[in-house]
C-alpha cells in the first residue's frame, strides 16, 4: 500500500507537468461550459420557473435547485474526459504508459497516478465552480460546500470503469459512444435539471442506476438541508462501490494491455 | 559528463572493464526460455548468458523472437517456460527491483511529445524515485552526453528522428542502469545519426555498462557487439563473437563473380557447376555467383584458367551478413 502510494506519487508528477502545459485548454470545458449552463438554466430559465412557483422543487429557487447537481455533473464530465483520450494516448498514440512500466512502476501504479491526477482535476475545477455558484447565491445552506467531496466521489466512481473500458479499445471511436450514450443522457436525465420522479418509471429506474443521480441527489440534499442520513449513506456506498470495482477493473485492464 | 559516471558502481567490486574473463558475473541467465502468445510460440527454448561489462547482440530476421526475448529480459513480459534470471533476480517476483536497475531504449520512441526534451528526462527520473533535484542534475548531464543541451527547452515534436533516438537513449540512462537494453537503436536513422549513436554506445560500453542490443544491421553488430546470437524461428541458430561466427559459418573471403546482364539464372547454374570445386561453398544468385573460399584471389585465377570471363570480379572478406544469410536464409520473412 505504501509502495502504491509512493509510486502513484511519482506518476502524479508526470500528469502535473503535462497539465502545466495544457491547463489553458481545459478552462473552456471545465469552467466556461458549466458557467454557461448555470447562467442559461439557473438564471435565464430559472427566472421563468421561479415566477410560476417552485413547489415541485421543494420551494427553492431554480438556481439553488440545479447548482449542486450541475457541480456533480461537471465532475463527471471532467473525469470521463481524463479517463478516455489520455488513456488511449498513453497506450497507443504516444505509448508513454509503455515507457512507464519499463521502470519500477507497475501497471497498478500507472492507474493510481492517473486516478490521482483525475482527482486533482475534479477537485480544482469544482472548487472554482463552487465559489462561482456561491457568488451567484446558488447554495442554500453552508453544507452545500460538501458538494465538493461528493463531486470528487462521483468523478472517482466513473474514472475507473471508463479507463478500464478505454484499455479494451483499439481506437477512439468507442469514446463517442461513451459521450453520446453515457455522459449526455446522464447529464440530462440524472436529476440535475428536474426531479427524476417526473420521468416515466423505467427511465426513472435507469437514473437510479447511474452514479450521477446519487451524486446529484446527495449534493442537492446537502445544499438544501434536506439530507436523509440513510439515503445519504446509500448514495455514498453506491458511489464507493463504483470507485472500488472500477479501479479494480482499470488495474486489470492496464495489466492486460501493458504486460504481454 | 565523464563516461564513467554513467554506470553505478557496486560496492567492493572493481570495474569490470577488461576483466570479463576473470570474474564472469552473469547479468542475464537464460535456460530453455519460452514465450507463447496463444498457440503461437515466439521463443521456443533458448539458452544464453550475458556477462557483466560485455555488449551482447541479438540478430535475426523479423519474427525471430528477438523482441519477445528483450521484453522478457526487460521484466515486462511474463515467461511461458524455462528459467530467466536478470541481475540474479526472478522477474516473476522481483520485477520492480529488476526494472529499477535496467535502462530500456524501446524500438519506437515512447517519448512524450507534448513535453520538452528536458522534461522528458526529469519526469522519467521521477519514476525511478530520484528526487526532483537529482532529476534536474541528471537531465543536464545526459543532455550534454547526447549533445542535446541546446534543445533542452524544445518540444519533442520538433526534434529530428536522430535527436529523438538520442533522447530516448539519454532517458534510458537516467537511473544509471547496470544493464542497458536497446531494441533496434538505429533503425530508420541516417548514416550520420547512426555513427553518432554508435559513438555514444561505445563510450557507455567503455564505462562498463553492459549492453544488450537487437539489430537488423550486421555492420552495427560487428561494430558494437563482443558476442552475439543469431535467432531464427524462436531458436538460437548460432552464438559467438563476430569473428568466431564468420570463422565457423563462413569462409575468410568471398569471391563475387558477375557475368553481365545477359546471363540468365539457368546459365548461372551451369557456370556454378564449372567452378563448384574451387570453393568450399557456392551460392547462385540471380545476378552473380558467390564463391566462399579462404583465398579469393586464387579462386579468381582458377576461374580465369578455366576460360571463364566474368564481367566483374570482387574479392572481399566475409562479413556477418554472409553468416546471417547462411543461417537464416534469403527468403523474406514477414
What's the alpha carbon Rg of chain B, rounded to whole Å?
23 Å
In quaternary terms, these chains amount to: heterodimer
Task: Indicate the structural class of chain A.
Answer: mainly alpha
CATH homologous superfamily caption of the largest domain in chain B = P-loop containing nucleotide triphosphate hydrolases
Report low-confidence residues of chain A grouped into runs of 5 or more: none
Number of helices of chain B: 11
Give average pLDDT of chain B, whole number: 88
How many domains is the backbone of chain B divided into?
Answer: 2
Backbone shape of chain A = elongated
Compute the number of structural domains of chain A: 1
> Can you name the CATH architecture of the largest domain in chain B?
3-Layer(aba) Sandwich
GO molecular function, one term (chain B): ATP binding
Keywords (chain B): Antibiotic resistance, ATP-binding, Cell membrane, Membrane, Nucleotide-binding, Translocase, Transport
Organism (chain B): Kribbella pratensis
Region (Disordered) (chain B): 1-25
SSE blueprint and pairings:
The complex is a heterodimer of chains A (260) and B (334).
Chain A lengths: L1 H50 L10 H21 L2 H9 L2 H5 L6 H29 L11 H20 L6 H17 L11 H9 L1 H14 L4 H30 L2
Helix pairs in contact in A: 1-2, 1-5, 2-5, 2-6, 2-7, 2-9, 5-6, 5-10, 6-9, 6-10, 9-10
Chain B lengths: L25 E12 L2 E12 L3 E5 L6 H8 L7 E6 L4 H9 L2 E4 L11 H11 L4 H14 L15 H12 L6 E5 L7 H16 L3 E6 L2 H7 L2 E6 L2 E6 L1 H8 L3 E6 L6 H11 L5 E4 L4 E5 L2 H10 L6 E6 L2 H9 L6
Helix pairs in contact in B: 3-4, 8-11
Can you summarize this structure?
The complex is a heterodimer of chains A (260) and B (334). With 260 residues, chain A is an all-alpha fold.
Relevant terms:
heterodimer, A: 260 residues, mainly alpha, B: 334 residues, alpha/beta, Rossmann fold, Alpha-Beta Plaits, 2 domains, six-stranded mixed sheet, 11 helices, 34% helix
Amino acid at each position: 500500500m505504501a509502495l502504491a502510494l509512493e509510486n502513484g506519487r511519482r506518476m502524479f508528477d508526470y500528469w502535473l507537468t503535462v497539465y502545466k502545459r495544457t491547463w489553458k485548454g481545459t478552462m473552456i470545458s471545465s469552467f466556461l461550459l458549466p458557467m454557461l449552463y448555470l447562467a442559461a438554466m439557473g438564471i435565464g430559465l430559472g427566472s421563468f420557473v421561479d415566477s410560476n412557483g417552485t413547489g415541485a422543487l421543494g420551494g427553492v429557487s431554480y438556481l439553488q435547485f440545479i447548482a449542486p447537481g450541475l457541480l456533480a455533473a461537471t465532475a463527471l464530465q471532467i473525469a470521463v474526459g481524463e479517463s478516455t483520450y489520455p488513456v488511449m494516448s498513453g497506450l497507443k498514440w504516444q505509448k508513454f504508459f509503455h515507457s512507464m512500466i519499463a521502470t519500477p512502476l507497475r501497471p497498478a501504479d500507472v492507474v493510481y497516478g492517473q486516478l490521482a491526477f483525475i482527482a486533482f482535476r475534479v477537485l480544482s475545477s469544482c472548487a472554482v465552480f463552487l465559489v462561482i455558484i456561491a457568488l451567484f447565491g446558488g447554495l442554500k445552506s453552508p453544507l452545500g460546500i460538501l458538494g465538493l467531496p461528493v463531486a470528487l466521489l462521483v468523478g472517482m466512481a466513473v474514472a475507473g470503469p471508463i479507463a478500464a473500458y478505454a484499455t479494451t479499445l483499439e481506437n477512439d471511436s468507442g469514446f463517442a459512444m461513451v459521450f453520446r450514450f453515457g455522459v449526455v443522457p446522464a447529464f440530462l436525465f440524472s436529476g440535475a435539471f428536474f426531479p427524476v420522479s417526473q420521468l416515466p418509471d423505467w427511465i426513472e429506474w435507469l437514473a437510479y442506476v447511474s452514479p450521477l443521480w446519487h451524486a446529484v441527489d446527495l449534493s442537492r440534499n446537502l445544499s438544501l438541508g434536506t439530507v436523509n442520513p440513510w439515503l445519504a449513506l446509500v448514495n455514498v456506498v453506491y458511489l464507493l462501490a463504483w470507485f472500488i470495482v472500477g479501479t479494480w477493473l482499470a488495474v486489470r485492464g492496464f495489466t492486460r494491455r501493458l504486460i504481454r | 559528463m565523464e563516461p564513467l559516471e554513467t554506470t553505478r558502481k557496486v560496492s567492493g567490486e572493481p570495474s569490470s572493464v577488461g576483466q570479463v574473463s576473470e570474474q564472469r558475473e552473469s547479468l542475464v541467465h537464460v535456460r530453455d526460455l519460452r514465450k507463447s502468445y496463444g498457440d503461437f510460440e515466439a521463443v521456443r527454448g533458448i539458452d544464453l548468458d550475458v556477462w557483466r561489462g560485455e555488449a551482447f547482440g541479438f540478430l535475426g530476421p523479423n519474427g525471430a523472437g528477438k523482441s519477445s526475448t528483450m521484453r522478457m529480459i526487460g521484466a515486462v513480459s511474463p515467461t511461458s517456460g524455462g528459467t530467466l534470471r536478470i541481475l540474479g533476480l526472478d522477474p516473476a517476483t522481483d520485477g520492480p527491483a529488476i526494472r529499477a536497475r535496467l535502462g530500456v531504449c524501446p524500438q519506437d520512441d515512447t517519448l512524450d511529445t507534448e513535453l520538452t526534451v528536458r522534461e522528458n528526462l526529469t519526469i522519467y527520473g521521477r519514476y525511478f524515485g530520484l528526487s526532483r533535484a537529482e532529476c534536474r542534475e541528471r537531465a543536464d548531464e545526459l543532455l550534454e552526453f547526447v549533445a542535446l543541451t541546446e534543445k533542452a527547452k524544445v518540444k519533442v515534436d520538433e526534434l529530428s528522428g536522430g535527436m529523438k533516438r538520442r533522447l530516448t537513449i539519454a532517458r534510458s540512462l537516467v537511473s544509471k542502469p547496470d544493464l542497458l537494453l536497446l531494441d533496434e537503436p538505429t533503425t530508420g536513422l541516417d548514416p550520420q545519426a547512426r555513427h553518432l549513436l554508435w559513438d555514444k554506445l561505445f563510450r557507455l560500453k567503455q564505462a562498463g555498462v553492459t549492453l544488450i542490443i537487437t539489430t537488423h544491421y550486421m555492420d552495427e553488430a560487428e561494430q558494437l557487439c563482443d558476442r552475439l546470437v543469431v535467432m531464427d524461428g524462436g531458436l538460437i541458430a548460432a552464438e559467438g563473437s563476430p569473428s568466431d561466427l564468420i570463422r565457423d559459418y563462413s569462409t575468410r573471403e568471398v569471391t563475387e563473380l558477375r557475368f553481365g546482364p545477359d546471363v540468365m539464372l539457368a546459365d548461372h547454374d551451369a557456370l556454378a557447376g564449372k567452378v563448384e570445386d574451387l570453393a568450399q561453398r557456392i551460392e547462385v544468385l540471380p545476378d552473380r555467383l558467390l564463391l566462399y573460399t579462404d583465398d579469393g584471389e586464387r579462386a579468381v585465377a582458377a576461374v580465369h584458367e578455366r576460360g571463364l570471363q566474368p564481367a566483374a570480379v570482387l574479392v572481399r572478406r566475409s562479413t556477418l551478413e554472409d553468416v546471417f544469410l547462411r543461417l537464416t536464409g534469403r527468403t523474406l520473412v514477414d
